[in-house]
Amino acid sequence: MNIESKLPNVGTTIFTVMSQLATEHNAVNLGQGFPDFNPDERLINLTTEAMKNGYNQYPPMAGIAPLRQAISKKIFDLYQHRYSTDTEITVTAGATEALMISIQALVKPGDEVIVIEPMYDLYVPAIELAGGRPVLVQMTVPKTPEESYRIDWNKVENALTEKTRLLILNTPHNPTGMTLNANDLNALENLLERYPFYVLSDEVYEHIVFENKPHLGMSSRPNLANRSVVVSSFGKTYHITGWKIGYCVAPLDLMKEIRKVHQFTVFTVTSPMQVALAKYADDKATFNGLASFYQEKRDYLEKGLASTKFVPYKSHSTFFLLANYKNLSSEPESTFAKKLTVENGVTVIPLSAFYMNPESKAANNHLVRFCFAKQRQTLDNALARLAVL
């Protein structure tokens, strides 16, 4: 008996493919977005302490109260918006679960969901599992390395229909390093005043915005917060991607539906890590220095790439930067990235992988994504291999 796939167009993710290639060819992996260094020893000790103190059984479905309180306090301190710890904050099994359950809760069969390209690869499969239809709107590609990818809000408005249920945003943006500015928020507020859709805002890199600029997310404006689900990640903030702990915040009417899906997806999230994070995250110093920490690594990799045949593009946020390889090859991005791994021992991610149709001309602009959440020695090893190209 044949099984009819619910996701017939989904294969192995590009991150898995490239990381496997990196392992097979002993390449320096600057592809998949995870740090190659340990988190703060204090956080590890707090987790061990929680285990020894008996926090090893099921915590509350929405997350332990002290952690939800720490999240609420942080958001208010940063963005002056207060979310109820009892009804508007849910701790999730990573940002991945937060995104998935939000889409499953809010999107019904036949609904349309606007997705901005390039995009994180979870969005479209999650929409399709919910029975929705993704509507893709491409960002404007920068003409020079100093420019940034930008959202064309006229294109967004043109994509809106009476079936539009949700707009998915990602800011700070993976893979481009783009951040929304005040004009972007103005344009979004204007659309929300005139059209009845919700926003799902993926803000997992909220604490990694460079040049001392503030993160402008949905919680920073009441009119946006009242129509949005905001997702964030302890993994990205505290160098613990393997712990898979994140959270989402939303108005009561939205969170009520999201929690219904959450309780039958994972029910709840690992207990000792929540206890540790509640104590650790209550100290704002644990996230306030993150941007400068990563900006130093960005600058180091950018300078190093500038001395090769790659042309680095300015990254305004996240722990990724793009680089153009036109001086090295005219091949499609996926072909170039795989050859770079196999023949030169450095793994990157083709930007085309973040498009619905990665083989299309629009998706191929001779750009690849480097991850700089690495130790200095790792970056040096990669740059040494790229310098001889």
Automatic annotation (TrEMBL):
Annotated GO CC locations: cytoplasm
Claim: Transferase is one of the keywords in the record: yes
UniProt keywords, alphabetically: Aminotransferase, Pyridoxal phosphate, Transferase
InterPro entries the record matches: Aminotransferase_I/II_large (IPR004839), Kynurenine-oxoglutarate_AT (IPR051326), PyrdxlP-dep_Trfase (IPR015424), PyrdxlP-dep_Trfase_major (IPR015421), PyrdxlP-dep_Trfase_small (IPR015422)
GO molecular function, one term: pyridoxal phosphate binding
Gene3D superfamilies on file: Aspartate Aminotransferase, domain 1, Type I PLP-dependent aspartate aminotransferase-like (Major domain)
Every Aminotransferase class I/classII large domain range: 27-386
Cofactor: pyridoxal 5'-phosphate
Family that this chain belongs to: Belongs to the class-I pyridoxal-phosphate-dependent aminotransferase family.
Protein known as: Aminotransferase class I/II-fold pyridoxal phosphate-dependent enzyme
